[in-house]
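Progress note, project year one: complex with aspartyl-adenosine-5'-monophosphate.
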Amino acid sequence: MFSLSTISDLKQHAPAPVTLEGFVDAVRHQGKIAFVQLRSRLTLLQCVVLQADLLDICASLSSESYVRVHGRSQLMPQAIHGIEIVADQLEVLAAAAPLPIDAHSDVHLKGQHPSARLRFAADLLPLLASAALEHGLRDWLATQDFVEIHTPKLMGAPSESGSEVFKLGYFGQTAYLAQSPQFYKQMAIIGGMGRVFEIGPVFRAEPSFSVRHATEFISVDIELEGERSAADLATLEYAMISYAFAELEAAHGSHLQQHFPQTLADSGPLEILTHAQVCRRLQLATDTALTGAHERELGQQLQAQGVDFCAIVEVPWSQRPFYHRRQSSRPDLTESFELLYRGMEITTGAMREHRRDVLLAQLAEKGLSGAGAQGYLDSFQWGAPPHGGFGLGLARLVALRLGLPSIREATFLHRTPKSILP
Ligand code: AMO
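Model obtained:
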């Protein structure tokens, strides 16, 4: 494997003996010379072949084969990166059969051949972008004194509600796959951890085939102690995302410019609107639960004003789970928010109800028994600080940042009700 830093090293020390391995991006024959373009991730490097025995190998060398080249580096202004390798040995470590897809194949067909799919820069780059964004989020969280936690994905009771949950056999009992680390992250705060986050898989048994749904996805979960408003939480999240966007650009700016130019567009300021203001803007009844179509319409309006991010606060209590805190002056509204990016919800967050008696009353008001959530509910007996947090869908953030048609393109192995292989 090699990278841009390998290449800048080669340039510093050229001419020098060198051994490199990589995929064959292309082979070009020109009379008694062949040019083998080697590729490692998104980096290309030219090898020149002049020896007769190596030219014979090149004659039958298929694209995407994995090769090892021994040779000598030489500066060559016309070559990509201004350097090339003159080969004196060429070993085919694994010859490649023709790929079953090409760069323009249907996304579902590509999904059936994940290793082949990643050989195309426009398919690989979103995954590298996702990793860079995740790295940026972690970096920012570390600077703000958040502690990374890992919570179980196997649970004895559903984590949020009874619906949309995968059940499985567990030594004669029923276990559930975590839909969210919601209760656990709150329990960590009640335990005194101060500020925590988790970036990990969550599972939703949603029979949905939309461009923004998966049955398994990576959730970025944040929870922190302290009294603040939903708008404060949204502002904190906006700062975190802005930092991660800058890291993404630093890591992959030139490739993004080439393949996904809209990635580098400025996001504008964070707009904060109340749910009632959004309803008025969209000419909807005040308590309307916003659908994906409403979010898109709002997104279009705001993007026309140069605003990509919008936090919707004061969401009605009727649309919120029992653990969200209600506003003391308007108990029909919650201290919660949704963050929309380019017309799609990417986050739900809220201040949590930390007073146990009020929490239990809200549970009852929602018609829930709390069965299975006893450990969570019990923890509120021991002095729960005011706290809040949010959950961000990583693939949605990546897809919207890069302008991808769906979260499928932002995921290595996408899971839907109908695709569980490979
Ligand atoms: P919520 O259920 O809204 O909130 O999920 C948070 C974010 O996760 C993403 N998301 C999904 N991404 C892909 N496929 C899905 N099926 C899917 N469902 C949700 C979205 C969404 O905004 N416990 C709360 C968070 C909190 O309050 O801290 C929760 O999970 O981007």
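The chain has a mean pLDDT of 96.
The chain has two domains: 4-94, 115-410.
No further modelling is planned for this target in the current period.
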